[in-house]
Amino acid sequence: MISRRLSPLGLLAVLAICVTTRADQKVLYEKQSSFNTIVVTEGEEGMRTVWFEKGGARQSVVKVGDPDHVELPYARAMPAALALVENPKRLLIVGLGGGTIPGLLHKHYPQTMIHVVELDPDVVDVAKKFFGFREDATLRAYVGDGRRFIQRCRDPYDVIFLDAFGAENVPYDLATREFLQAVRRALTPKGIAVGNIWSRYSNPLYDCMVRTYQDVFEELYILKVQGAGNEILIALPRKQWITRGDLARRAGKISKEKHLRFDMGEAVRYGYRYAKKKNPHAHVLTDNNKAKRPE
């Protein structure tokens, strides 16, 4: 995912990636929904991609029928946070895309109740029609606003994955202190929140997003994703110190036990950072300070 605030060299690199990616893709579907221009393409070996704008960044890449194939680097890093939760019973994912993360987690945690909430009903339809997303007794998709869904939550979750992007970035309403406070209330005492955001180089609100997570949660760990512009924020509503080595060991153990095709421990070893220091120049995002958003 990219935004308009890229450096000239970064913009050229992203444009090159997008052009290369789109040139060998066959368009299977295109529709202007109420929220995005949804485009589905298919490339070599049946790999399908969903985009939320023409020529934009890839939202999901799926090898239909093979949930263990995880193409995008951020999707291999985000589940590493499960190393901090023993035997998760209930998971919530905000943002469906092509269903890469829900599909992976559902296969390897078949007894875990997984709820996915997606704002755009057309995205849900596309995930089912083109990406093999299927609901069953332990995997449910809900069409609706992720913020309202969390605010109305009555049964807490062990993990809440925040993976909702528009065409450019995380919607502002899913980045404020009030929203993250609702996320915290929707977690079990030993639960965690996991956010996928763009890094500082393409996200003008990056420092403020990090500062807002720090304001709401007791601990914050950050994984910089190798080969991508994503950073994964792992937020805990309690004090729990964990080192890079310990988290990498736990994540790697899960990868071996689940026979994953990638080692989640590598994502930790590459990008781990304990976000203890607070940037004095970054303000906390609130529902009332939208006027401070950079244009």
Describe the overall structure:
By secondary structure, the protein is α/β, with parallel strands linked by helices. It has 2 domains: 8-61, no CATH class; 73-288, Rossmann fold. The chain is built from 9 helices and 12 strands. The protein has an 8-stranded mixed β-sheet, with helices on both faces. Strands 1-2-3-4 form a 4-stranded antiparallel β-sheet, sandwiched between helices. A hairpin with a 6-residue loop joins strand 3 and strand 4. The two termini are 18 Å apart.
Descriptive labels:
alpha/beta; globular; disordered N terminus; Rossmann fold; single chain; 2 domains; 30% helix; 295 residues
The biggest sheet amounts to: 8 strands, mixed
Overall 3D form: globular
**Helical coverage, percent range:** 25-40%
Mean pLDDT: 90
The CATH homologous superfamily of the largest domain is called Vaccinia Virus protein VP39
Q: What is the radius of gyration computed over CA atoms, rounded to a whole number of angstroms? A: 18 Å
Category by helix and strand content:
alpha/beta
**Strand adjacency order, main sheet:** 7-6-5-8-9-11-10-12
CATH structural fold name of the largest domain: Rossmann fold
Please name the CATH architecture of the largest domain: 3-Layer(aba) Sandwich
Give unreliable regions as ranges: 1-21
The end-to-end span amounts to 18 Å
